[in-house]
Amino acid sequence: MSGPRHHAVADRFPLVDGELSVGGIPLSLLAARVGSTPFYAYDRGLLKARVGQLREVLPAGISLHYAMKANPMPAVVDFMAPLVDGLDVASGGELRVALDAGMDPHDISFAGPGKSETELVQAVASGILLNVESMRELRLLAPIAQRLGRPARVAIRVNPDFELKSSGMKMGGGPKQFGIDAEQVPAALAEIARLDLAFEGFHIFSGSQNLRSEAICEAQTKALALAVRLAADAPGPVKTLNLGGGFGIPYFPGEAPLELSPIGEHLAGIVESAGLHLPGAELVIELGRFLVGEAGVYVARVVDRKVSRGEVFLVTDGGLHHHLAASGNFGQVIRKNYPVEVVTAGSATRQRETASVVGPLCTPLDLLADRMSLDTAEPGDLVVVFQSGAYGATASPARFLSHPAVLEVLV
Amino acid sequence: MSGPRHHAVADRFPLVDGELSVGGIPLSLLAARVGSTPFYAYDRGLLKARVGQLREVLPAGISLHYAMKANPMPAVVDFMAPLVDGLDVASGGELRVALDAGMDPHDISFAGPGKSETELVQAVASGILLNVESMRELRLLAPIAQRLGRPARVAIRVNPDFELKSSGMKMGGGPKQFGIDAEQVPAALAEIARLDLAFEGFHIFSGSQNLRSEAICEAQTKALALAVRLAADAPGPVKTLNLGGGFGIPYFPGEAPLELSPIGEHLAGIVESAGLHLPGAELVIELGRFLVGEAGVYVARVVDRKVSRGEVFLVTDGGLHHHLAASGNFGQVIRKNYPVEVVTAGSATRQRETASVVGPLCTPLDLLADRMSLDTAEPGDLVVVFQSGAYGATASPARFLSHPAVLEVLV
């Protein structure tokens, strides 16, 4: 991409020799280094900068966890592990990657409805913290702990009696499959005591992908108040309180980045209040998308340029089988374009034109950009989809139409 | 599932010992045989019956192709290959499976925008028919054919100047990435002549998942008329005309199965007319979903039963990572429930209750049934999602949250 930048998010990937770069490497050179397209590229510098940005605003007394589900690429997890205070996993598969990354099991937690017995065994054997989601899990854990001769470290994932307002995804409030309803928690705490499990605290996750700091602050205040209330029935002191995450990133025109400083200031008050009401409790925020989403791009190569009845179609070797969310088919009610740019190796300024970027699949759903303003592109040029570091490669139907798998690199 | 059947589609899977069966095997026994849940099970008898049902109504002179994209499981393709007259592939990966299945390359065709050079080489080397989608493909083919010393067998995939009305997916009409616009076909035919490629005919695919026979008949009539018109400029006789498919299956309440007999009668007229205007041309219809969709079920096991604020959630070991379409996240604008039933090993009649079936993922999108009337279920019971033989395992984000891969069996 030469000439002016067309998306604010592109500024994270500075021009080198007039061309967008990832990790300081011009994209066409990076594509050659990867060996084939399409691929995802994640930028170490941006990952580190994002953690730094958070550390600057988060008060002492707030631990920062990485929710691996957003991007479980082992190289990414290895890189993030020493930068954060803990990892949150969502399956036995993710747990293996977290342990491989060398994270202290004490600082790994596991949430997810429907954990299998195998996963519960993995968790107890590893010594990680289980965010328990049902009475059934509690009852299964007692014999597992006994058999392995290890404590079952448990926190209760609470389905709160409030929700995170204006969230992309509501994950608390009302009837939900996640966690134990707040009003059933006293009974669960009694069960933990009866079964002699190692109670450590609460996990209160109310939503995700939120761009309004005041909504996040309000949810944190409510989560702390709920935890303090529930702690009255706990069999021991609360050692950890996971306040969830919910920090969103902007994907679409008109969306502004989340303001962090009000959240930082608000969390300072939360830390103070927790110090009084839950003394000794570690306060955790758990972020996935916010840590990695903006550090990654998806790169495909233009295979064909077609003009059909006056409209330009750039047919690429990538598509929804690698990047379902960018195609608009992952939870979106109305399809909107992710920020997309054309990257050409040459440095001459190209004309802009309106074009659609499609993939190689035999379905009209395979659409990465719907009639966007882009630099004119020819076969061989690259197309970049920004904001692609989270819920990309692993959240896409890779085997659809039996095309080659997407590659991932950390640069 | 004991007691009455609650979905008409369930009747395809008769009760054996009071329990739903696939391929004559009661489901709980099948689950034991597979070894673990979740899995897809496809029924050989139903696949064969569906082909038989079509053969009964299709006139002589219509060839029946299987579009592998709907379900490329090698065992399914192996089973279908001798039952049909040809296979249609959508990638180099599918082509390998088609060849492994022993299908005569003469009867394999390959459509898809953005074919890679490697795929074009594969096609020419194999001797299959390429449904060419752009001028670029034509120009790339000439040197490939020369280098390999093999003819490049080509048909033109036409983006028609009409569309298939009331289709789930429109794939023709208006500006599209698929095929060559009808009005550009004469130029493409001239190019085929100039490049000395082996012209064989046309492929006119206007839409899919249609439940209205009159819409399909109308599209076939228009496709034939268009082919006849375009043939005037062809460098040789039309040897094959692929009329597309579009035959839908009912997924949701209120949808009625497609009526086949009017289509069969209509195709008899098409055959007659083609005999006059395109003498010697093989007429092909290409079906994917219609052949396999109703022959398959997705089976998951209930891991947990939770009551949250008065609503019942059956948490299973399967979910959207295996069956994206059933979760409502694959092209659907409004989420609707697929037909779902609970299957219990016992033969006692269970009470019905309203329950939601969810998966193990940490996202509210992971929903297989939203507040449906189901037999009451307990952990260990099985949940069956019907109408799951097409666009299931391969059209889902298998790696999402790093859960185990889904298994597939042909019974």
Number of domains of chain A: 2
Derived structural class of chain A = alpha/beta
Strand proportion of chain A, as a percent range, falls in: 25-35%
- Estimate the global geometry of chain A from the Cα principal axes: elongated
Largest sheet of chain A: 8 strands, mixed
The CATH superfamily of the largest domain in chain A is: Alanine racemase
For the CA atoms, what is the radius of gyration of chain A?
23 Å
- Output the CATH class name of the largest domain in chain A: Alpha Beta
Q: Report the total helices of chain A.
A: 10
CATH architecture identity of the largest domain in chain A: Alpha-Beta Barrel
Mean pLDDT of chain A: 95
**Poorly predicted segments of chain A:** none
Helix content of chain A: 25-40%
Tell me the greatest interface.
Answer: A-B, 67 and 67 residues
Q: CATH topology of the largest domain in chain A, which one?
A: TIM Barrel
**Tally of DSSP β-strands of chain A:** 22
Oligomer: homodimer
Q: How many angstroms does the end-to-end distance of chain A come to?
A: 19 Å
3D structure, described in words:
- 2 copies of one chain form a homodimer.
- With 411 residues, chain A is α/β, with parallel strands linked by helices.
- Chain A folds into 2 domains: 8-43 and 295-410, Beta Barrel (Lyase, Ornithine Decarboxylase, Chain A, domain 1), CATH 2.40.37.10; 72-287, TIM Barrel (Alpha-Beta Barrel).
- In chain A, 27% of the residues lie in helices and 26% in strands.
- Chain A is built from 10 helices and 22 strands.
- In chain A, strands 4, 16, 17, 18, 19, 20, 21 and 22 form an 8-stranded mixed sheet that branches. The first copy, chain A, has an 8-stranded parallel β-barrel with strand order 5-6-7-8-9-12-14-15, surrounded by 6 helices. A 3-stranded antiparallel sheet of chain A has the order 1-2-3.
- In chain A, helix 6 (135-148) packs parallel to helix 7 (185-195).
- The longest helix of chain A is centred in the middle third of the chain and has 19 residues, at 213-231.
- Chain A is elongated and about 70 Å long.
- The model of chain A has no long low-confidence stretch (mean pLDDT 95).
- The interface between A and B is large, with 67 and 67 residues.
